[in-house]
């Protein structure tokens, strides 16, 4: 991760190989209890299958290797996810006699070694591809790597062909086509709107990553690419310029010294809504908040009160402005990427890492205070807005 927003330095393509795969347990556990891995077997779980494959591709972007992800809802009911990352490893591991790509798709595994380039990961702790394969009636993987195109086919998580080396290829990347198992899922028809909303969200959270979605039922392509990242996300959430208390949105980012916490914030006050917080940890929406959101809210309230008193908007005898008043009309997006995320519950919707709270408080205090000091007119408008809502 760097101050410019690139979460990590690119790892060499050869550093991601079979030695990074560690076995936990087999596919039958997934098929017996799918809800433990994707939340449910309803429409929510169905779409989670897509997001898990996309998460692998996003991890390749975070590692500095992929800048494009193409998602297609196929006419025959499947989904294809393709990226231009390094490509899944194809070499045969000596201890098992299996290609690394087969292990990734058939064994509950994870990538704990930082040399893979995955300093952060947005999937089910690296288990996503195996879970999707186990819950699919059919899956085909196509890898462009090591100078060739490689393919392999699966049924219900079991390989039915060997990994095959095909024609020469000069590119790199992975494409996975899968069909949800009707014996597992209550519904197998994908919603374009549901997929589109999440893919657009991911494009906001990963500035510079281009994500496309095509529906072949009939064809309906969209493409998301936001170089402004979270500022563009706030603009999307705040669509009415006349209501802005200030413009543009305030945005900043920072990374700690040992590159284990990377935080991005964009925020803007408006008069048309009560506001709202959108917080994320490793690109997963944390609907229940957590330590990263707690740190932001605490620092924000303290900074607004400190600034209001320094600029004599509040006297020494005035009561402090409440957190509720400070947040009235505020639209904010907080995205944190941590090397070892700790979530409460299987749904991964509340972050528990204590270091996220402390680090974000410091980042917000430094960057927001600097912004207020360097934008006195906008700062005065924000304080007036907050004080008016508190009366």
Q: Domains counted in the coordinates: how many?
A: 2
**Radius of gyration over C-alpha positions, nearest whole angstrom:** 23 Å
Oligomer: single chain
Measured distance between first and last alpha carbons: 43 Å
CATH class of the largest domain: Alpha Beta
Q: Write down the CATH topology of the largest domain.
A: Heat Shock Protein 90
Number of strands: 16
Low-confidence stretches: 1-9, 110-118
Explain what you see.
With 391 residues, the protein is an alpha+beta fold. It has helices spanning 28-32, 35-38, 43-62, 100-106, 128-134, 192-205, 230-237, 291-310, 323-327, 354-374, 376-390, and strands spanning 22-23, 68-73, 79-83, 109-110, 136-145, 148-155, 158-159, 164-168, 173-180, 210-215, 222-224, 250-255, 261-269, 275-281, 284-285, 330-338. Strands 2, 3, 5, 6, 7, 8, 9, 10 and 11 form a 9-stranded mixed β-sheet that branches. It has a 5-stranded mixed β-sheet with strand order 12-13-16-14-15, with helices on both faces. The longest helix has 21 residues, at 354-374. The chain starts with 21 loop residues before the first strand and ends with a helix. The model is unreliable at 1-9 and 110-118 (pLDDT under 50).
Annotate the secondary structure layout.
Elements: E1 22-23, H1 28-32, H2 35-38, H3 43-62, E2 68-73, E3 79-83, H4 100-106, E4 109-110, H5 128-134, E5 136-145, E6 148-155, E7 158-159, E8 164-168, E9 173-180, H6 192-205, E10 210-215, E11 222-224, H7 230-237, E12 250-255, E13 261-269, E14 275-281, E15 284-285, H8 291-310, H9 323-327, E16 330-338, H10 354-374, H11 376-390
Parallel strand pairs: 2-10, 14-16
Antiparallel strand pairs: 1-4, 2-3, 3-9, 5-6, 5-9, 6-7, 6-8, 10-11, 12-13, 13-16, 14-15
Helix pairs in contact: 3-5, 3-6, 4-5, 8-10
